[in-house]
Amino acid sequence: MTEKEEAFLKYWEENRFKEKSILKQFFPGLPIGLALGTAILLLLDSGWYVRADMVAFSESSPIVIFIAIAAIVAFTGFFYKKFRWEMNEQAYKELKIKAEKNNTVSEEHKTESE
Q1: b/e 41-64 (16+ beta carbons within 10 angstroms → b)
Q2: Do the beta carbons of residue 98 and residue 1 sit within 8 Å?
């Protein structure tokens, strides 16, 4: 195993349960959700599609649009970090299996040489 993989295994063993908490998953993903919400507001404000703007502002109030964007920001922020946690957990499990296989192979090789 490489040094990077070993460092990741050590880091993830120490921090995997800390990063699983809901607040730890929500706040780091929040900037990505805010970026998406800002992009939506800029698209609505830019007027690049006049008909969509007319429909959006005639059939719904600004409060509904704000609530929808806030929900998108919250969901995106949570989902992004949750996805990253799941990816790290999967990589951890794969590396753990790889480390166990390397240990068993090296032990078998050691016993054969003796």
Answers
A1: eeebeeeeeeeeeeeeeeeeeeee
A2: yes
Token code pair at residue 78: 């949570």
| Residue ranges in the chain whose pLDDT is less than 50 | none
In the prediction, which pLDDT does 92 show? 93
Position 74 scores a pLDDT of: 85
Q: CB–CB of 52/65 below 8 Å?
A: no
Q: Is the dihedral of CA 101, 107, 111, 114 positive or negative?
A: positive
CA angle 80/29/71 to nearest 5° reads 80
What tokens were used for 109? Answer: 């090789």
What's CA 16's distance to the chain center, in Å?
A: 14
d(CA 46, CA 112): 72
pLDDT given at position 95: 92
Which residue reads 């990741």 in tokens?
Answer: 8
How far apart (Å, rounded) are the C-alpha atoms in residues 15 and 38?
32
